[in-house]
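Audit log entry. Action: structure prediction of a protein-small molecule complex. Ligand: magnesium ion. The ligand was supplied as SMILES and no pocket hint was given, so placement is left entirely to the predictor. Protonation state taken as written. Sequence taken verbatim from the request; no trimming, no tag removal. Recorded inputs:
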Amino acid sequence: MVATAGHVDHGKSTLVRALTGMEPDRWAEERRRGMTIDLGFAWTRLPSGATVAFVDVPGHERFVPNMLAGVGPVPAAVVVVAADEGWMPQSAEHLAALHALGVRAGLLVVTRADLADPGPALARGRAEVAATSLGAVEAVAVSATTGVGLAGVRAALDRLGAGLPRPVVDGPVRLWVDRSFTVRGAGTVVTGTLGAGRLRVGDRLWVAGTGEEVRVRGLQVMGVAREEVTGVARVAVNLRGTARGRLVRGEALVTPDRFRSSAVVDVRVVGDPVADLPGAAMVHVGSASVAVRVRPLGVDTARLRLDRPLPLWVGDRAVLRDPGRRHVAGGVRVLDVDPPPLRRRGAARARAVVLGEVDGRPDLVGELRRRGLVRAADLLRMGVPVVGAPVVVGPWLADAGHWAGLRSRLAEEVTRYARECPLEPGAPVEALRHRLGLPDRALVEALVGPPLRLVAGRVCGGGGPDLPAAVAAAVRRLRVGLAQRPFRAPEAECLAELGLGAREIGAAVRAGALVRVAGNVVLAPGAVEEAGRVLAGLAQPFTLSAARQALDTTRRVAVPLLELLDRQGVTRRHPDDTRSVVAASSGGGITASPVRR
Ligand SMILES: Nc1nc2c(ncn2[C@@H]2O[C@H](COP(=O)(O)OP(=O)(O)OP(=O)(O)O)[C@@H](O)[C@H]2O)c(=O)[nH]1
Ligand SMILES: [Mg+2]
């Protein structure tokens, strides 16, 4: 695929016609006026057998927007200069646009060589082109009238095509629509230059501007029906599922879930100094042209606010044009398609510093550093491939440093919560999510690690919370009594008198100041293990009554205490309700669980 470029009347369409035998000027008005107004399309076979397709653009300065829609998605250009007129304003403007778009390959053709010596136009054209992204290109002089030089152009086109980089064919599709029409019996057909990716009959695509889903009903490449097409190719796509007239030039058909529509983007500007840019301009990308407000940020960076969102990727190039002065102000390289708002004073300057280190090459590590936390799917939609992220939590990716920071903030918040609500069994995950400003509870849960623990939707501190002074004092009083008779759990009235309700007892148990045998039956830490040792000294098996006496306690305590020891495997209960000690409690491994209620 090549696009033509060059000043009005320099012979672009005549050259395309002579090479292909096809008429690029499709409109009657164009043929009547002898001037290209809109894009033309033509193709032919080259000597090597390869096919070249042309997007023929208008040269008149009034139609530069049409020209830009044509060259936007095309990887190579034929720069046309008439021998008898030489380098002219739109020669320069078109070349500036190609440079802005980063077009790296091309050909210089000096036409109308039968009318004047092509030498000066060749020399000037070579020099001008060499100074742009196209670099040193082949140059050929031709006369479409006599046919001299056409074979040379064909051979040069073959070499140009052979030297182009292979497009990525397994990546997503973004087909910028440059024409749309309805065919009786077939419905909507759009055409465009497929720069990369693969299209198949039956594929689902999204209309970028509206989000509606369409299906590929039929495909044609240069007039021939196909089941499958890979970029780069000139394609016509027959669509199912779209209302007629909805898809106009500048719309794009995209692979679902691989693009986001962005109305605010941060860019690097190459060309006119950012400070000299007009506040309002047009941005041209793909086949789209959209009005933008330009807000300078740094020396060469700016924020563009688009009138209409576009499916842009980090790294995309676009042309910035001042329609008032009819002047290509420069090229922009998209640095960020989801930039942070600039609310605070000095935010723009800070942003400029950040953008100073971004070059538009998709960079996962940099994106994570700048965003801290982001969904993998969102990065993919920005055009940033996701491979080898340091922290992955479900759909989320995090920067390693940011994650470490969140971890210590979580610990602080858990401690703070325990201080604020000492009787609660830990900070609820949802409260922590809120305090840390995280978008997903799963992130809080993933941040929990020793000494923090996740228990029943709450995060508990490692060391246990400090008890409120009144509760601690009441527990000390209990433990004075328990030191005398370790298995005489305090009665309910006694607990109530000391102000120890269910919440206070729960807090004391979590803090490790008491152990719970059952409900409000609590003992001092270590009492359960001690009970195992006492019972081991009895004649085996023993009855409940023998155990109660040995432990110097009541049935209220002995029954649940033995059941607890059964559950811990310290004692075994026989069919006749007697028990034996099966393992001496060492006091270390088997303990009453402080969290069991
Ligand atoms: N003598 C001569 N005339 C040519 C040659 N190439 C083009 N012309 C004439 O130059 C005029 C303009 O040619 P076009 O091909 O329409 O020029 P263009 O660059 O497509 O013009 P726009 O599309 O309007 O920018 C026409 O009258 C052509 O017949 C050539 O090699 N020799
Ligand atoms: Mg023309």
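Audit: result stored. Residues 6, 8-14, 34-36, 58-60, 111-112, 114-115, 143-145 surround guanosine-5'-triphosphate (ligand 1) (CB under 6 Å). The longest strand covers residues 261-271.
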